[in-house]
Amino acid sequence: MSSPKKFPVSWDQFHRDCKALAWRLTGLADANGGWNAIVAITRGGLVPAAIIARELGIRNIETVCIASYHEYKDQGELEVLKGISPDLISGSGGQGEGVLIIDDLTDTGATARKVREMLPKAHIATVYAKPKGCEMADTFVTEVSQDTWIYFPWDMEMSYVEPISGLKDG
């Protein structure tokens, strides 16, 4: 089996991609009666939720805390660490109407599926999507192959990178 493709994303690129997602969601807001709240799937959804909330002028922001990746390498059993506020659920008619669910990535769709069970009529938007997870995202910006590992800017530090050739002198 080949090693995963690497897709490093800089802060600048991630910010541009989040703004592109916000722009797409703006066009959908009228059709959905506007967005009343955002639910960020932690931890990856926190940064895009903040950017999108700013761009769309949404101040009601909630989190749902679900652990799925363990040791940053394997997606395992889903564990809901914190559910969605009952006030937000009841305020959206119990179904999630007018609520945006935001995450950085839908990989297999398992996390999005779990949140969809909580708010069936919410709109799930992710910055990136892999083929197995695409069907769970109502809106996303960029599709990457299933064998791609995305290196988000909050997971990286500045350091020297060897040339692709592997030669030390380039």
Q: How would you describe the overall organization of this protein?
A:
- There is one protein chain.
- It contains four helices and eight strands, in the order βαβαββαβαβββ.
- With 170 residues, the chain is α/β, with parallel strands linked by helices.
- Strands 4-3-2-5-6-7 form a six-stranded mixed sheet, with helices on both faces.
- Helix 2 links the parallel strand 2 and strand 3.
- It is globular, with a radius of gyration of 17 Å.
- Keywords: Cell membrane, Glycosyltransferase, Magnesium, Membrane, Metal-binding, Purine salvage, Transferase.
Which class of secondary structure composition applies to the elements? alpha/beta
Order of helices and strands: EHEHEEHEHEEE
Shape annotation: globular
Largest sheet descriptor: 6 strands, mixed
* Number of H/I helices: 4
Strands, count = 8
User: Roughly what percent helix?
Assistant: 25-40%
Mean pLDDT across every amino acid position: 90
Please state how the strands of the largest beta sheet are arranged side by side. 4-3-2-5-6-7
- Span between termini: 28 Å
Q: What fraction of residues sit in β-strands?
A: 25-35%
Tell me the Rg in angstroms: 17 Å
Which residue ranges are poorly predicted, with pLDDT under 50 across at least 5 consecutive positions?
none
Subcellular location: Cell membrane
Family: Belongs to the purine/pyrimidine phosphoribosyltransferase family. XGPT subfamily.
Catalytic activity: XMP + diphosphate = xanthine + 5-phospho-alpha-D-ribose 1-diphosphate; IMP + diphosphate = hypoxanthine + 5-phospho-alpha-D-ribose 1-diphosphate; GMP + diphosphate = guanine + 5-phospho-alpha-D-ribose 1-diphosphate
Binding site for GMP: 107-111, 149-150
